[in-house]
Amino acid sequence: AQSVAQPEDQVNVAEGNPLTVKCTYSVSGNPYLFWYVQYPNRGLQFLLKYITGDNLVKGSYGFEAEFNKSQTSFHLKKPSALVSDSALYFCAVREGISGGYNKLIFGAGTRLAVHP
Amino acid sequence: NAGVTQTPKFRVLKTGQSMTLLCAQDMNHEYMYWYRQDPGMGLRLIHYSVGEGTTAKGEVPDGYNVSRLKKQNFLLGLESAAPSQTSVYFCASSYISSNTGELFFGEGSRLTVL
């Protein structure tokens, strides 16, 4: 069965410093990987995805993520954090099988706190 | 462009009462989903629909029912609410493509069962 783990409940970083939010996954086939962000009292918003190709994918708001097949990881990164990046971040995985059903399995979420 | 709209946004129920959450999307998406979000547990899929007139169970379907009579609407019902159903409920929708997986979410409905 597919699963995704976010080992950190919270990540604290100073504004201007680089940030990393960790995600590891488990699927039996090729993974489709996603990051979503949730701001307070809002729904989740799509940030970026990895389907195939370049292991480094770029997304919204300056975020990027690196797919590492050998480590089964898909860590979210940003070179310079902003206070406005403070939010709840979810990693999600979908098994890359054929068919149109887009069932995603979400991690528990990591709260990012960026301090001025 | 409204996207995905959920009503109501807040509701307080007593144990045993029933209620329906309404989700409406204006993006002509085929797929719609209901998730619940609980602290430390992320999002868990309750039910989903791959098209008008079809529904299927997700990870945590017990105690909930759904209907998709119109393509743009996906209703989540609680027939007899229990305190364990206190949660934030999110509706989402997506295109039919198997390659994107991008979901569009509503802003959530906070339900408290006393």
What does this structure look like?
The complex is a heterodimer of chains A (116) and B (114). Chain A is an all-beta fold. Helix content of chain A is 0%, strand content 52%. Chain A is built from no helices and twelve strands. In chain A, strands 2, 5, 6, 10, 11 and 12 form a six-stranded mixed sheet that branches. A four-stranded antiparallel sheet of chain A has the order 3-9-8-7, with no helix packed on it. A two-stranded antiparallel sheet of chain A has the order 1-4. Chain B is mostly beta strands and 114 residues long. Chain B is built from no helices and eleven strands. Chain B has strands at 4-7, 10-13, 19-25, 31-38, 42-49, 56-57, 65-67, 73-78, 87-94, 104-105, 109-113. In chain B, strands 2, 4, 5, 6, 9, 10 and 11 form a seven-stranded mixed sheet that branches. Chain B has a four-stranded antiparallel sheet with strand order 1-3-8-7, with no helix packed on it. The mean pLDDT of chain B is 92. Chains A and B meet through strand 5, strand 6 and strand 10 of A and strand 5, strand 9 and strand 10 of B.
Concise summary:
The complex is a heterodimer of chains A (116) and B (114). By secondary structure, chain A is mostly beta strands.
